[in-house]
Amino acid sequence: MTVRRTLAAAVLALSAAALIPAPQASATGTGDLPFGSTTTVGLHNTYDPAAFSYLAQALDTGTGMIELDAWTDTITKEWKVSHSNPLGNSNNCVNASSAAQLYSGGANKNLESCFDDIRVWLAAHPTAGPLVVKLELKGGFAANRGMGPKELDALIAAHLGAAAYRPADLLAGPGGSYATLDDAARAGNWPSRAALAGRAVVEVIPGTVEESNPFDTLHTDVEYGRYLRDLAAAGKLGQAQIFPAVHGAAAADPRTRYESAIRPWFVLFDGDAAAYLNGIDTSWYDSRHYLLVMTDAQNVAPAISGTDPTADQARARSVQLAAAHASVVSSDWRHLPEVQSLVLPRG
Predict the structure, then answer these.
(1) pLDDT tens digits for 289-302?
(2) Alpha helices of 173-310 — where are they, by DSSP H?
(3) Can you tell me the mean pLDDT for 113-120?
(4) If 0-12 CB within 10 Å is exposed, 13-18 middle and 19+ buried, where does residue 238 land?
(5) Which helix (H) or strand (E) holds 111?
(6) Taking the model in full, what pTM does it have?
(7) pLDDT above 70 as % of the chain
(8) Can you tell me the distance from the alpha carbon of 298 to that of 317, in angstroms, rounded to the nearest whole number?
(9) Domains of the chain, first to last
């Protein structure tokens, strides 16, 4: 009987430990810094079941960013989460409704289930985060078939709920009210990391299929930027749940590719780390308090492993890109929670 009780206690202890995130390897005082003034480390294609059996396991690493790939299935009107199948799911989301369900049950659920898992995990870890949720719309929106920005916002509002840090939240505080995201960011209106604990910032980028489709003339970034502009004009910006990203590293202000009316609605930029470090003045982003996601961090010279570098290599690369003004350093370093949980001063 004693042995059985001991084993049962051990099992319970392990189960409880699974719900505790990796210790946050923060630099001193980073919790008091504005969200836009710190650098975290993120995970690419976090939904992939080959990377993690459950999405919650990725969150347990203490990572500052996860990534979801989604397809607009206009036949079933569902947002599918998969790398390459536009009509089916291949992911590690389990549609948890409680913390106890995060590590069990069948996976391969739709996008709303991934946001359910994120909401439940954040509620169970109220001091974690803020977490950037990078959403790649592989084929883009299909607003003409009932799967546009409005519908995606409604899904996120219903399943991420109050955990979402929205564009309207940036406009409103803590330093006062501003007219556009650009105004608010340049005024440094990001809350502190501590104030954003338990919250998620959803970023959307155009997908690889969309960007290579010659018949798609309205990409995700432009479509969501126009949507934000129109919501603001109608006094309904509170409905928006997402920060659209300017995708691809470019010199100077890359928003000049857009019409002038939507440029002020982009304060998040996302591109290749090696390209950013190849002659682009990344201090431009930091001085304006814009968020800058640097992807494929492993490819910055000298290149290191994209999946299994040593902890020292990954930490040194993260420190290097933090000094180069990254907000998020993205890679597939899924086996290094001590690096994924890093929080560094930016710049």
Answers:
(1) 999 999 999 999 99
(2) 181-186, 208-211, 220-233, 273-276, 283-287
(3) 98
(4) middle
(5) helix 111-124
(6) 0.93
(7) 92
(8) 8
(9) 2-345 (3.20.20.190)
